[in-house]
Structures are given as structure tokens and as C-alpha cells.
């Protein structure tokens, strides 16, 4: 298993290297970072409370949306695309091919996350003059939630990639779904200000709680009053996201093995023909 | 030592919905054999290969490949098998060299138990005639080059058993010839067992020691090209020039006729050609016979 993960790690780094040399992939990341810069610039003087820049509310939302975009949407698109082009079937023809493939995809995703979070925080640091309002405990919460959030959302990237069949519908509709999820999870405006019937939806999803914990770290304690429960609930946040992580980690490998088992050359050829007709 | 068969199939049945694709197939492959699986489109060739590769679960039948049931066999078994499927489009953004190197490392943990070290990438590229393309992007390869890369990937782990589904589609005559040499070398020097499907009957005749003909889900013939030719009423074609005039004769048994012809003293026989029935003629006769049933 260790050798498979190591081979997958190398595979993921090669894939990431290919990405960095592919203009469209680089432009995609750059556009995201430019958007981050523009949003933070526009609200540079706004305050969430006296002494607390609005950026401290916006930044947790940005990090959460980036996380779901890269680990959920991006990874799902990769898997559904590589099911169609036969990469997954190829993995089945090789010894330990599937674990190597899966750890390769995860490695590439982690590399993308690092290459997005680091510049994002750098941009924020410049615009905020280095003032993040984080003490040591806050910093630990931010890092821990980013790691746990990655653990929760990465498996769901695989779930998305295995449940859906058509790469174009995943990349198209997926954009919209991520937008809706961000909205009902209180990442655009506070969940407490949304209609009461939306709130349970947001509370059941991991995105609200990832954002909640990050906000709790960045913002002063009294701003917890604007949250659904009127206070910062770090324990509950880590519990909910943790449950999602466990569920995803149990579900994803089973689903991946299942769809890989069902892939056949003739099936891929049929879908290729269908794709050619659509084009 | 009596060697165990590399592939043993008994009563393989497979249906898709109401359509029966394979209707009770039996055959075996022994070590070092090169066997061609022929048949019309839709005869079940690809399905048969996919069952043996462990990609499809058969509805019935007992299947042993390298001593194990393909659908439950593990990674150590997988490491002993090479697979070249009909069409691949994967890893288009990779370069040829790094892709093969990546795949080669996957076989290393099994090299001790199988006794087969993965191929050196440079040697392998040379073997399939892609030595100049090590740094090329996979998507930039032509159809025939891409196919040769697929064959290289199938060979990278030095498999004991190699499945090739229409391997030479898109090959030019030179590449095709080189590929045939490669298959001969594999079976002669590495003792590799090869099962391939093809529509090119001249190719099958050239590289396969044994032919299986699959038609409508059953095996209608199993034997060497010469054995198959004897199984259908057939004739050799004898042509010659008799005092400058071209003559053609068809005979089931060519030898007595030729002997008699050459014994004649009244004429001068030149340009004598005896052409045995080709596999193509045998094949067409067999399929026609099945159609007539």
C-alpha cells in the first residue's frame, strides 16, 4: 500500500506539473486569484465591527469556496473526464492501478489547494497590511479546519466524479451547484439572515461549518451573535465536518471501485461515439 | 513436468439483456502459444477477451487464467498480464517516456515473485519502433504510433500472457511487419502466451500458430491454419505456362497433379505456381457454411 501511495504521489506531481504548463489551467487559477484580489480591494475600508475589517468575514468565505471548488468540483470533473477517456480503465489493467490513480488525483488536488491558499493569504496580507487578527489558537483552528475540510470534501469530489457520467454536465452544472451551495451555506451573506426554511439545509452541509469555524477564528468573539446559534460553536463545527469526512472516506473508495469495475472498453467507445455526435 | 494451461475456459456463457453473446465456449491456451481469435463483428471476440482480462463477469462457465479466476484475482495476478484494448485515449497530456516510466514502477513490487523485471523504457520504445518519440506528447502521436504506445504499455511489465484486441489497426505495412516480428520474438524468447483478435486474416495466418474462429457466440473452428484448411472442402490453385500459354487448374490434392504435369514430355512447363488455400478462403468458406445452417 505504501508503494502504491508513493507511486500515486509521484504521479500526482507529474499531473500537477503538466497542469502548470497548460495555459488554460494556469489562467483558471489566476482568474480566481484576481477575483479574490478585486473583492478584497473593493471592501478594503469596510468594517464588520469597529476594529474588525470586513475582510475577516470575507476571507473565510473565500477559503471555503476555494476548498469546495478545488477538492469537490475540480476533483469531480477530473474523475468524470478520466472515466470517459479511459484513464480509469487503464488503471484497472495495471497492478495496484486504482489506488495509485486515486492517490495521484488527491496529490494533484492538494498541490492545487496549496497553490491557491498561499497566494490568497498573501494577497489578503498585503491588502490588510498584515493584520489577520489571529492569535496562536485562532491560527491552529484555521489550519485544522482547512485540513479537516479537505478530508471532508475530497472524497465527495470522487463521489461526484463517480455518480455523474457526463463531463460536460458536471463542469457546467457544477459551477451553478457550487454557487447555490455557497449561498445556502451562508458564505455570501450570513446564514442567519437567510429565510428560515433555508437554514436547516445550510446547517446540515459541511460548508457552513467550515466557514463558521474560520470566521470564529478571524472575527472577534462578540460577532458570534450574527451566527445561527448566536455564538461560535467550534466543537459542533468540527463534529459536523468530521462526520462528513468519515462518511466520505467510507463511501468514496467503494464507489470508485464500483464504477471502475463497470468500465469496459466497449462502453468507453460507445460514449466516445456519443460525445463525437454531440460535438 | 506437465505444464498447466495458461488459459482454460469451459462453458463460457454471456448475455446482454435478451441477446446471447457467448453460448458455451471451451478452449485452452498453452504456454508460449500465439493464438488468433477471429470472427465477424459482433461474434463475441472482445467480450471473450474482456472476460479473460477480468473486466466482465461471465454469466456462466469456469474460467482459469494463469491458474486463477479473473474476476476475483488480485494485483499479483494482474502484474503477470498485459492488456491492449481496442481503443485508448487516456493520458493525452502526458509525454511518452514519463508515462511508461510511471507504469513500469507499478510492476517493481512484483518482479521478485514473478521473476520478470519490467522492461527498460528506452529498450521497449526501440522494440515497438517509437524510440524517437520518448519526449513526445501522447496526444501528438499519429493513430499508428498511439497504437504502438498502447502495445508498449501492455508489454511494460513483461507479461506472461498478453491480450491484444485488434492491435495493428492504423499500422502502415512497415510497422505491421515490425509488429509481427515483435510477437514472434515475444513467444520465442520470453515464452509469452499471446491471444489476439484481428480482422486481418493474412496477419493471423502469419503470426498465429493456432486460430480460433468465433461465430454467433460459439467456436466453429480451432486449429492451425493448415488444419482449418483441411476441414473445409478446398482446393489448391495450380498455374503454369505450357509452351508460353498460361494454364490454371484447381485440385483438392495438388501433388499427384503436379507430378503428372512435370512427367509429361510433350510440353515445356514454365512458371509453375502452386498456391495453397489461404486462411482468408478457409475463413470465408467456414462462415458461409455457418450461414447456410
**How many separate structural domains of chain B?**
3
Which percent bin holds the helix content of chain B?
Answer: 25-40%
State the share of residues found in helices of chain A, binned by percent: over 70%
Strand order of the largest sheet of chain A: 1-2
- CATH class of the largest domain in chain B, named Alpha Beta
CATH architecture of the largest domain in chain B: 3-Layer(aba) Sandwich
Which runs of chain B of at least 5 residues are low in confidence (pLDDT < 50)? none
Cα-atom Rg of chain B, whole angstroms? 22 Å
Question: What descriptive keywords fit this protein?
Answer:
heterodimer, A: 279 residues, mainly alpha, two-stranded antiparallel ribbon, B: Rossmann fold, 3 domains, six-stranded mixed sheet, three-stranded antiparallel sheet, 36% helix, globular
Overview of the structural elements:
By secondary structure, chain A is mostly helical. Chain A has one domain (2-278). Chain A is 77% helix and 2% strand. Chain A has helices spanning 2-20, 23-42, 55-84, 87-93, 97-127, 136-163, 167-184, 199-204, 206-218, 234-262, 265-278, and strands spanning 47-49, 52-53. Chain A has a two-stranded antiparallel ribbon. In chain A, α2 packs parallel to α5 (97-127), α3 runs antiparallel to α9 (206-218) and α9 (206-218) packs antiparallel against α10 (234-262). The mean pLDDT of chain A is 91. Chain B is an alpha/beta fold and 293 residues long. Chain B folds into three domains: 7-80 and 160-229, Rossmann fold, CATH 3.40.50.300; 92-150, no CATH class; 233-292, no CATH class. Chain B is 36% helix and 27% strand. Chain B is built from ten helices and twelve strands. Chain B has helices at 45-52, 75-78, 96-114, 121-127, 143-155, 173-189, 201-207, 225-231, 254-263, 279-292, and strands at residues 7-16, 19-29, 34-38, 60-65, 81-84, 161-165, 193-197, 210-215, 218-223, 236-242, 245-251, 269-275. Chain B has a six-stranded mixed beta sheet, sandwiched between helices. In chain B, α6 (173-189) links the parallel β6 and β7. In chain B, α8 (225-231) crosses α10 (279-292). The longest helix of chain B is centred in the middle third of the chain and has 19 residues, at 96-114. Chain B is globular and about 75 Å long. At the A-B interface, α1, α4 and α11 of A face α1, α2 and α3 of B.
